[in-house]
Design goal:
The protein is of the alpha+beta class and about 220 residues long. Helix 4 crosses helix 5. It has seven helices and ten strands. The relative contact order is 0.12. It starts with a strand and ends with a helix.
Length: about 220
């Protein structure tokens, strides 16, 4: 199968399209033919090893995993003998933190971050939906957010922020989202409890610095 691989860290040109062996699956795994994937911030960090601390997880001197890609959407082509929740032909999407999705086929455990694609949604539409949701949900669970609590999401229109708003609403939290003037309608569409408009500009920052300097000198 074709895959985008790299054997070292660096700029985008370290990635090459080559032929590699198709993954073999274990009894509890599925093989998925990838119809859509993404290039996201995690992929870029894994490829460049920046910040340097990433190497503690991806390999100190060279990458542990040759194939990048954390998000995918596709069709199940093979299931292991112990798999009960999915069948050949199922349309699925998911997230694999160790990568491997920039390929024609990817394997994933039945217990992994994997779900059926809802009826009416395309591969291209669902593939980009998992990375931001993964990190947002991890933060929400880590903070032990409960129904009725007030939560501020600073940057409510990014991949992680927009997912956090929706997940927090599902938990039952009262969500206030911060956004720029061009994204108010988007945040309103996410059904936040409150919206805060960020109007900070470079000129206002300079004015604030000037006021601070004048106050310090008086």
């Amino acid at each position: 199968m074709k895959a985008a691989v790299r054997s070292t860290y660096g700029a985008p040109d370290v990635v090459r399209i080559v032929d590699v062996e198709r993954p073999t699956i274990k009894n509890d795994e599925l093989l998925v033919k990838v119809h859509a994937t993404t290039v996201n911030r995690t992929d870029c960090a894994y490829r460049s090893a920046k910040p340097f601390i990433n190497r503690l997880f991806t390999g100190l001197f060279r990458p542990k995993w040759a194939i990048l890609g954390t998000e995918f959407a596709g069709e199940v082509t093979t299931v292991g003998s112990a798999v009960t929740s999915f069948a050949v032909g199922d349309r699925v999407f998911g997230f694999i933190e160790q990568g491997g999705c920039h390929a024609e086929f990817v394997s994933i455990p039945e217990s992994g971050s994997l779900a059926l694609i809802p009826s009416g949604l395309t591969y291209d539409l669902v593939a980009p939906s998992t990375e931001g949701s993964h990190y947002a949900l991890t933060s929400i669970k880590g903070a032990k957010v409960q129904a009725g609590q007030d939560v501020l999401v600073n940057g409510g229109t990014g991949g992680i922020g927009s997912a956090a708003v929706q997940l927090l609403k599902a938990v039952g939290a009262n969500v206030t989202a911060v956004c720029g003037p061009g994204h108010v309608d988007l945040v309103r569409g996410l059904r936040t409890s409150r919206r805060t408009l960020r109007r900070t500009t470079s000129s206002s920052i300079r004015s604030a610095r000037a006021r601070s300097a004048n106050a310090g000198g008086s």
